[in-house]
Amino acid sequence: MDKVADLGRDIGAYIRQQRNTAKISLRQLSKLAGVSNPYLSQIERGVRKPSAEILQQIAKGLRISAEALYVQAGILDVPAGGPVPDAVRADTALSERQKQVLLDIYESFRRENRAAEPAENDNDPDFSKE
What we know:
By secondary structure, this protein is mainly alpha-helical. It has 2 domains: about 1-75, 434 Repressor (Amino-terminal Domain) (Orthogonal Bundle); about 85-120. It has 7 helices and no strands. It has helices at about 1-20, 25-35, 35-45, 50-60, 65-75, 85-90, 95-120. α2 (about 25-35) crosses α4 (about 50-60), α4 crosses α5 and α6 packs antiparallel against α7. The longest helix is centred in the last third of the chain and has 27 residues, at about 95-120. The protein is elongated and about 55 Å long. This is Helix-turn-helix transcriptional regulator. Pfam families: HTH_3. GO terms for molecular function: DNA binding; DNA-binding transcription factor activity. One of its GO terms (cellular component) is cytosol.
């Protein structure tokens, strides 16, 4: 039971941190997310545990990825890491939106390079096929 309460506090503290970073008041976020001011306040204080739908609305109001809130709330597992994604996620100077954009760009480059690998090897006379 304590673990559930801890998750509620963790997600609430995370939402408050993101709201403060975005320089948005509780009342402004309430309006942007379409969530009542008292309910949002209870979420931030860890009194209420929001549903995935409410988290999605809050993410939209904060202009961050819903995935970031889902991970923080324990709904999703932490995405696969590596040195670059881990460094981006750990950087406190970046907003969640900036982190997500960087991670999307990084992953698109990796996908592009993976797709190009077989074509490069086909033109390589030293590449032997087994």
